[in-house]
Design goal:
alpha+beta, four-stranded antiparallel sheet, two-stranded parallel ribbon, 15 helices, elongated, metal-binding, iron, cobalt
Length: about 350
């Protein structure tokens, strides 16, 4: 029996290393567009102005590319081999989000998508494709839900029956008319573990996120001083946060990622805060070459490290924080002053 074009594409995608593949029409439900608009109109996107600037293109794939007929959504597991939150119990170490402990996934997935795209254009005369990996106004999670890779959980991230919350996404827009994937059951039910796991109460309600309170947003997207109300709640998170993802019970079905390029670098699993705080710009760039962390720059990263030092209650970290009170970047210097003050307060309490 001859395989369908969908089966051939899915088979080749899995051969390339993708763990999930689905198909949907190049359109989004009204609910997804309304949710996006409400999120932006409420200001919950914070300083991420790019979300507001291309709002229409995000909500309607054909606005981005009028010729698109179908969307192929690919997922790749990045499930960690060990407890992703173990570092939270080591206050002198920094906790880096699982997705940033290895090569930049944008580069890894985009390369594989291009290989798959070459295969797809051979499936018919005049077939056209465009590939995306979180680099264009594409509403990835609603498209992944439409393609039956999973559903958007109460933490607003995608939840997969097979990979839990550990799934990186990429999309291929195509002029091919493809049959949408069959619906798959799955839901969060009455579970609220992801909501209660959030240290900063970033979820006003189930299925709603206020990015301005999210540690991932604060440590990655937010450019100025981190608001004082959130600093003690950040613990030793220095780049991103996995607390809500790690709490998901569906993760029990996830197997450790089989993609070797997504295997965590040993030096990024539990790096010492003191060593990170001493990074100058060249050392920062060298350490995080090929890593998504590099894009936020040394100053923003060291700011995060200093917040973690202030939360560490470790007086041995006070000297490095004191040195950085003279840093040339005013945001770094202010974070260092805060860290010195917090460590001093803790030392006084212990006397």
């Amino acid at each position: 029996m001859k395989k369908s074009v969908e089966d051939r594409i899915a088979e080749h995608a899995r051969h390339l290393g993708f763990d999930a593949v689905g198909f949907c029409r190049a359109e989004l439900p009204d609910e997804a567009r309304a949710r996006l608009r409400e999120f932006v109109e409420a200001g919950r996107h914070g300083t991420m102005g790019w979300m507001e600037q291309r709002l229409d293109q995000r909500g309607e794939p054909k606005t981005l590319w009028p010729e698109v007929r179908s969307v192929i959504v690919l997922g790749m597991s990045y499930a960690p081999a060990a407890d992703p939150l173990a570092t939270l119990r080591q206050p002198d170490r920094g906790n880096i989000s699982v997705y940033a402990r290895h090569r930049d996934y944008h580069d890894v997935i985009k390369g594989l998508l291009k290989h798959l795209a070459q295969f797809i254009v051979k499936q018919g005369d005049g077939v056209e494709v465009k590939v995306f990996v979180d680099t264009a106004p594409v509403l990835e999670k609603p498209l992944a839900e439409a393609a039956q890779l999973g559903w958007q959980g109460k933490h607003t991230n995608l939840v997969s029956r097979d990979e839990g919350s550990w799934l990186l996404l990429g999309e291929i827009y195509t002029t091919l008319e493809l049959t949408p994937s069959e619906p798959r059951a799955g839901s969060c039910g009455s579970c609220t573990r992801c909501l209660t796991a959030c240290p900063t109460d970033a979820f006003p309600a189930p299925y709603q996120l206020d990015a301005r309170r999210c540690i991932s947003y604060l440590t990655i997207e937010h450019t100025g001083p981190i608001p004082n109300e959130f600093r003690p709640l950040m613990g030793n998170h220095i780049y991103g946060c996995d607390d809500c993802l790690a709490a998901c019970p569906w993760n029990r079905f996830a197997q450790a990622s089989r993609q070797t390029k997504l295997t965590a670098r040993p030096d990024l699993i539990a790096p010492k805060l003191e060593e990170l705080a001493r990074l100058d710009d060249p050392a920062f760039r060298a350490l995080f070459s090929g890593s998504p962390i590099k894009r936020i720059g040394r100053n923003r990263f060291v700011r995060n490290v200093l917040i973690a030092i202030g939360n560490s209650a470790d007086p041995a970290l006070s000297p490095v924080a004191m040195e950085l009170t003279q840093d040339s970047d005013p945001v770094v210097a202010e974070a260092a002053q805060w860290a010195v003050q917090k460590l001093g307060e803790k030392a006084t309490c212990l006397q």
